[in-house]
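seq as requested:
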Amino acid sequence: MTIGPAVDVRPAPIPAPIVLEGRDVRVVALDPAAHGDALFESTAGRKHADLWTYMFDGPFPHRAAFDAAVRRWSDSQDPFFYAIVDRASGLARGRAALMRIEPAHRVIEVGSILYSPRLQRTRGATEAMYLLARYVFEELGYRRYEWKCNALNEASRAAAIRLGFTFEGVFRQHMIVKDRNRDTAWYSIIDAEWPARKARFERWLSPENFDAEGRQRTPLSAIEIA
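struct tokens:
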């Protein structure tokens, strides 16, 4: 009989309200008082309804419902929500969560990612994903880092591949979300793969990869994983 290799069976720690510092963004535990105003202004209201198409909740056209949701997110331990704060302005421009946390198996997912238009397609948007991945692998010691999304969400699927996740398949009729079927596309990075993906992130994030106007010289998708 063939069985898998033995592994370290010590459980991983759960995510904590720490500060992850980058050049362009800071990733911090979500705080309604500190982040609610900026997040409502940049992600909620009728003009941002499209941001919530594939989310489990939202959109939030009214402030009271949004504030109640932010309080729920900040009180939650799984998902554990973080705000993505623009260092230049000091304002929250998005959020993301570490979720479906399985310390015994050292498996964790990054999800509930919501970027405002001001954060989308910026260096800080990618830097936030790098900071969370580094935290998961190097500080918390997880073995498997997952990305899941609605199989119809082409933007999220493209982002997963660009960020170095491996596509693993589609779970058909996996969920019912907002009264609609959701087939779920699964992606992952495992701990043995992280060093090469980390090097790729850091090469792209290097100041030398951007010109004086902040334009990238080499796209992340063009940098091969060693």
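The mean pLDDT is 96.
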